[in-house]
Amino acid sequence: MKPLSFTALLAGCLISWQALAATVAESIEINDPYVRMVPPTAPATAAFMTIKNNSGEDHALVDAKAYINKVTELHTHIHDAGVMRMRRVEKIELPAGKTTALQPGGLHVMLIGLTQPVKEGQAIKIDLTFDDGSTKTIEAIGRPIMPMGKMNGSGMGMGMKPMNGSGMGQGMMLSNGRNQNPRGMVMHANPAFPNLTGIAIKNSAELGLSAQQIADIKAWTKAHGDKMQQLFSQVNGLEKELIQDSLAGLPKAELIAKFEKTLAMRKEIAETKIDCRDNMKKILTQEQFAKLASIYPMM
């Protein structure tokens, strides 16, 4: 029998070592995976977790697949001129020996086109694929929405800053693409829908809107936007007057009359916002609308 050469032996050792080497998935540790519960009619939600890369090399999460929705994507949020925008990313970097947090307002796994509601405590299967092609399957638990982290005993989310004298949390910012004082406007928006037209236009590239879609959205805004602004302003003013008039001792009948006037305006606001939503569903594709609707709840 002819003896093996040193080169052949070395090649055999290398092949054997590679066969036994751990995949990236085996070197990844997933902690606290959960899926955010959303209203039954919501078209999308997100999954969050922490991902620890226990290997000595940098790797990346490059894809994900869940089984309660039609499309699963990797996403992040960015601040652009004071506006929070959602962006799809091709991969999520996982530095060697480090833990990467997927959390509300940042990196997350987006579940678009939900085929069933997310229930509290429900175990949701998600496949995570890494840069070497290996996959780790996890179970993320359905969890209620808790803004800015878990609620503490005072009812305020951990990490949330207290309200200042103006009633607005320090460092907190809401923007819906149109309103100059969005927090005040959103407080009176019933139902609580953001300005979908403004958000859609500002995120047109991410949504993949055509020139015709953008034109149709702007046409609706031109027809209804100024009237909505006026209604918001009038409702805000009337409710301030109600407080002052009540303290001043205005008769009950007059207070009730003013209150009914504000209710009528609120109803008109609600009807217009519902019309806005229905119009957007006609203009956008199902996937585009699902992405649009997901931008605001994920903030």
Please sum up the structure shown:
With 299 residues, this protein is α+β, with helices and mostly antiparallel strands. It has helices spanning 6-20, 24-27, 182-187, 196-202, 204-207, 211-247, 252-283, 286-295, and strands at 28-36, 44-53, 59-66, 69-80, 83-88, 92-94, 99-102, 108-114, 123-130, 135-143.
Q: What would CATH call the class of the largest domain?
A: Mainly Beta
For the secondary structure, the number of strands is 10
Main beta-sheet strand count, sense and barrel state: 10 strands, mixed
Structural class: alpha+beta
Distance between the termini: 71 Å
Please compute the radius of gyration using only Cα atoms: 26 Å
Low-confidence parts: 13-21, 147-194
The CATH topology of the largest domain is given as Immunoglobulin-like
Number of structural domains: 2
The CATH homologous superfamily of the largest domain is called PCu(A)C copper chaperone
Shape label: elongated
Helix count from the secondary structure assignment? 8
**Helix content estimate:** 25-40%
> What series of H and E elements makes up the topology?
HHEEEEEEEEEEHHHHHH
